[in-house]
């Protein structure tokens, strides 16, 4: 930003110089601003009492005003000595004519200086005073880009446009004899935004400007001679720069706070000192909009809003969740957010609030696609105390149950309703051992004690016990179309898409196709002469002309030929045991041995 008209700043400078400063004394701003000014910024930086980070730079320069609307500055040079900063020099100067803008609010033609922490990497002037910064020796073609093109907010040489600063002219007027480029709205600190201010310099020739910081040529020259690339300047009004709360200026929390945007970020200004000595050597600091927690294992992470409140209610870092291992991630489905912790994750949505997921349930939910999958967001935390040490968690689209024996499985819809009606994990089915899967034109799910099948036509049906075991060995039967029913005489049966399973305690469970079962019912079913099936239906023996399909029963069999002819065969009743006859080898007197007829002597014909 170019300096003001000479007549304007000369009057302001004259007023300052009228305040006699003894030779050799530190030249401070006039006493009128002393009550609000900070004259020990190096000590404040060492105590972590600045809202803007020095990023551990070797040297940090402060340029602060008593208020945002004051252009008169106290300028202090600090050098790092171990884990603290000590003051090297102090001077006074000017910022923008109208003072400082709030952080990230500086734009063209406001005549305010930007607020924040900015790096030095380049410099310019009449001749290099021995700086380690990249240095441009100004000549008659030297310009600073103000036109909205590729030269915006950078040095170039050429004729330039109307908005480009003529560095040669300003140097010869005394302002840019020496100048350090403040990296506002330019790399490496930020991506350049056209129209968001340019030519912010720390330069010689004290005068209020359109946004630069100006001080004595001696102070600027000293800064250049001692600067390394990456040294910084922290500038702004006292209340925007300093805080009464302390933190480690070289610590992870301070660095994290800087990366969030400092006081202009969503965290806002510090609201507590950094607190150490937490579990596992952790630390935290509270800010207006949230907190930063640090642990050796998880690093430094922000946490705020409903997620922070929920985490605090669980016991914060002392809970099973432990420390955060990520920042809050936003932009999820339906405006949701999440955060990862050492022991699980927290998800939030406007519809469901914040809930914790962890362990096997978290893994099952993740495999289903998190909030984008069929389950949606969690609607409860994990709830324990179930049978055999199990637990469950509810979601918008279903429930996840977990037990040590079965792992974590999803139940939902009609299958879940049928399982719940059977007694859930306390019923005959026990815990789910699979998720729902496509089956026989519908879906099915396996449980410890059986299976539930579903189609739109038949609804959800439970297949369990001995019939369920048989079903699992013969899945071509398809989905169940009825629940298990009684046959009478202690038997049970269940219908399936492609047949039936018939069970009795003395014969077991056996598969019967619809046609064979119909023939069995015609023959009297379990109360008829055949009794219960004793084997599955089978194909007739090869070469047989009697039947295509055969099934054995307790007292016979049914065969159905390829042409549909049904043949019912009953086993003969057991014969009675015959009385033993006398031995032919030992004839008795009462019964002599009969002589057998021969071929020469035909037997007499009966009468």
Description of the structure:
By secondary structure, the protein is of the alpha+beta class. Among the domains are: 6-241, L,D-transpeptidase catalytic domain-like (Beta Barrel); 412-559, no CATH class. The protein is 15% helix and 29% strand. It has eleven helices and 34 strands. Strands 1, 2, 3, 4, 5, 9, 10, 11 and 12 form a nine-stranded mixed sheet that branches. A four-stranded antiparallel sheet has the order 16-17-18-19. Strands 23-24-25-26 form a four-stranded antiparallel sheet. It is elongated, with a radius of gyration of 46 Å.
Q: What can be said about this structure in brief?
A:
15% of the residues lie in helices and 29% in strands. It is of the alpha+beta class and 607 residues long.
> Distance between the terminal alpha carbons, to the nearest Å?
150 Å
The proportion of residues forming helix, as a percent range, comes to 10-25%
Quickly give the structural class.
alpha+beta
Extract low-pLDDT stretches.
2-35, 578-607
CATH fold node name of one domain: L,D-transpeptidase catalytic domain-like
What is the strand content? 25-35%
Number of strands: 34
Count of discrete alpha- or pi-helical segments spanning 4 or more residues: 11
**Shape category:** elongated
Mind telling me the CATH superfamily name of one domain? L,D-transpeptidase catalytic domain-like
CATH architecture of one domain: Beta Barrel
CATH class of one domain: Mainly Beta
Tell me the radius of gyration.
46 Å
| Major beta sheet summary | 9 strands, mixed
Mean pLDDT over all positions: 89
């Amino acid at each position: 930003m170019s300096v003001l008209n000479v007549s304007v700043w000369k009057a302001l400078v004259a007023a300052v110089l009228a305040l006699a400063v003894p030779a050799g004394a530190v030249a401070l701003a006039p006493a009128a601003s002393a009550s609000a000014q900070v004259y020990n910024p190096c000590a404040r930086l060492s105590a972590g009492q600045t809202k803007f980070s020095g990023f551990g730079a070797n040297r940090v320069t402060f340029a602060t005003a008593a208020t945002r609307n004051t252009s008169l500055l106290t300028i202090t040079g600090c050098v790092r000595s171990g884990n603290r900063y000590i003051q090297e020099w102090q001077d006074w100067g000017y910022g923008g004519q109208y003072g400082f803008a709030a952080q990230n609010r500086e734009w063209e033609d406001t005549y305010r200086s930007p607020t924040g922490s900015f790096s030095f990497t380049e410099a310019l002037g009449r001749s290099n005073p021995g700086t380690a910064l990249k240095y441009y020796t100004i000549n008659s073609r030297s310009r600073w880009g103000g036109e909205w093109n590729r030269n915006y907010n950078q040095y170039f040489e050429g004729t330039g446009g109307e908005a480009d600063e003529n560095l040669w002219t300003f140097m010869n007027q005394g302002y840019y004899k020496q100048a350090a480029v403040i990296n506002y709205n330019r790399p490496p600190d930020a991506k350049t935004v056209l129209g968001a201010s340019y030519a912010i310099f720390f330069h010689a020739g004290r005068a209020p400007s359109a946004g630069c910081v100006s001080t004595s040529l001696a102070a600027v020259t000293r800064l250049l001679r001692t600067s390394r690339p990456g040294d910084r300047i922290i500038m702004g009004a006292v209340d925007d720069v300093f805080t009464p709360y302390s933190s480690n200026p070289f610590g992870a929390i301070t660095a994290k706070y800087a990366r969030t945007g400092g006081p202009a970020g969503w965290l806002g200004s510090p609201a507590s000192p950094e607190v150490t000595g937490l579990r596992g050597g952790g630390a935290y600091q509270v800010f207006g909009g949230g907190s930063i927690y640090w642990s050796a294992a998880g690093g430094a992470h922000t946490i705020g809003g409903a997620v922070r409140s929920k985490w605090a209610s669980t016991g914060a870092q002392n809970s099973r969740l432990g420390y955060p291992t990520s920042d809050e991630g936003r932009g999820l489905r339906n405006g949701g957010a999440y955060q990862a912790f050492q022991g699980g994750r927290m998800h939030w949505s406007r519809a469901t609030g914040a809930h914790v997921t962890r362990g096997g349930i978290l893994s099952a939910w993740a495999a289903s696609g998190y909030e984008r999958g069929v389950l949606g967001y969690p609607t409860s935390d994990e709830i324990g105390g179930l049978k055999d040490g199990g637990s469950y968690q509810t979601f918008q689209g279903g429930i996840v149950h977990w037990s040590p024996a079965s792992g974590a499985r999803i139940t939902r819809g009609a299958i879940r309703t049928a399982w719940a009606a059977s007694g859930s994990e306390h019923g005959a089915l026990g815990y789910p051992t699979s998720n729902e899967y496509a089956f026989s034109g519908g879906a099915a799910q396996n449980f410890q004690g059986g299976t539930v099948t579903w189609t739109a036509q038949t609804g959800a049906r439970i297949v369990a016990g001995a019939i369920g075991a048989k079903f699992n060995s013969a899945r071509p039967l398809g989905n169940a179309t009825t629940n298990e029913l009684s046959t009478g005489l202690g038997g049970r049966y269940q219908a399936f898409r492609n047949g039936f399973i018939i069970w009795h305690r003395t014969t077991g469970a056996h598969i019967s196709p619809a046609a064979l079962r119909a023939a069995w019912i015609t023959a009297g079913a379990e109360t008829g002469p055949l009794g219960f099936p004793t084997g599955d239906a089978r194909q007739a023996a090869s070469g047989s002309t009697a039947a295509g399909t055969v099934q054995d029963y307790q007292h016979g069999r049914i065969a159905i030929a390829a042409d549909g002819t049904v043949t019912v065969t009953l086993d003969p009743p057991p014969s009675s045991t015959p009385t033993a006859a006398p031995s032919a080898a030992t004839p008795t007197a009462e019964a002599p041995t009969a002589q057998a007829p021969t071929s020469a002597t035909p037997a007499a014909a009966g009468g």
